[in-house]
Amino acid sequence: MANSAQARKRARQAAKARLHNQSQRSEFRTAVKKVLKAIEAGDKAAAAETFKASVSNIDRLADKGAYHKNKAARHKSRLAAAIKAMA
């Protein structure tokens, strides 16, 4: 347990940041899932449109530090390849 005023404040700040980061990570996962769902539906045009919207979301979260830039790039690359591979 935090004993000093400084430690108590840092604990409050950490709890607030954790909740914010948690919602940001959820937003990232939702963006990826939307694209995967569009790919599974088989509509390439809809998948490409969803991908375009999700990319800006994924990049924004990577810029904020919610995810590492390489992780964001890996997800974007795999989603793009999946869309490209659609018949």
UniProtKB/TrEMBL annotation:
Family annotation (Pfam families): Ribosomal_S20p
Name the InterPro entries for this protein. Answer: Ribosomal_bS20, Ribosomal_bS20_sf
Per the record, its GO cellular-component terms are: ribosome
| Residue ranges of the region described as Disordered | 1-27
* Keywords recorded for this protein, A-Z: Ribonucleoprotein, Ribosomal protein, RNA-binding, rRNA-binding
Q: Does the keyword RNA-binding apply?
A: yes
- Tell me the superkingdom of the source: Bacteria
| UniProt feature, compositional bias: Basic residues | 7-19
Protein's UniProt keywords contain Hydrolase: no
Q: Which family does it belong to?
A: Belongs to the bacterial ribosomal protein bS20 family.
Job description of the protein: Binds directly to 16S ribosomal RNA.
Protein name per Swiss-Prot or TrEMBL: Small ribosomal subunit protein bS20
- Species assigned in the record: Chitinimonas prasina
